[in-house]
Request: fold
Amino acid sequence: MPFLNLFYRFRQKRTMDTILNKLHDIELRYLELEGLLADPEVISRQGTYHKYAKEHADLAELVETTRQYEKTKKLLAENKELLAESDEEIRAMAREEIPALEREISSLEEKLKILLLPKDPNDDKNVFLEIRAGTGGDEAGLFTGDLFRMYARYAEQQGWRVEIVSSSPAGGMGGFKEIIAQIEGRGAYSRLKYESGVHRVQRVPVTEAQGRIHTSAVTVAILPEADDVEINIDPNELRIDVYRSTGHGGQSVNTTDSAVRITHLPTGLVVTCQDEKSQLKNKAKALKVLKARLLDAMVQKQNAEEAKTRKSQVGSGDRSERIRTYNYPQGRITDHRINLTRYDLENFINGDIGSVIDALIAHHQAELLKNQR
Reply:
């Protein structure tokens, strides 16, 4: 056993040495970028400048953490040297500071490992949020509306912009059969991507005279917005139909052919948009959603291939997977992927979802670190 412990510490040291070599190269690149961003020639080329500025911003936290790590290691070495001093008071001060410095170093090492994990290329993108009522009739439609308000309030807390792309009301009870919205803001996909899947609600519907609890289901899909470079659609592969809008929408409803339905012939994907009074605006929004769905299909295919060799517990994006239950009688939320249960449903459904998202991200990072060892 002592030999195994020694071997493990040796392997950890080798791993950290490798990481430090990599961090040294990253800091050199960071300093190079600082020089480039101050170069008048680079500043004059807007596209190049923005590219370098983004790379510089992406490396900032890693470089700052590296510098803090090296500073703390230097402080620890200095305190260990003080243990050899003849003055007992100085030795006592050093002994007191060493444990805290060792804990900080250990914490910074873990943070550096996480910051060096492969980054999802879609993390900084805007997203399309698609929520659809599943089993449960009117109650599922009402809960679709509840979930949309939950995400909209969370987005507002993050300083993100929310715009409804299309919606389909669910009868006279309120709520939606389906609602699609675009959420714009830095890191929107990185925070929301774990929300894809089936959300189950258990509560007494407003139409239930006997007070019986019903179970309904709603499907959520989080799609990263696709860049034109990633998804290039041949116009000949599209069938575009225009028709008169139905439902809410103002005076132009049922008087002009402003609603748009786009069918992608190779895949059979269909996107409709009628929330705008302008046909051109509806067409532009529908094309954006179509591109996001095509990108998502590519990502899903890639994830399925990767899952053959390694199963990821979080972030698979499988829309058929039940990920969370909202139990109103008990005031309980349970995330089934990480066995997390909380009893603050009212706050959660009002947009206080950040801590659960943090827990999902931490779990995913832990899984990635485990697979790298």
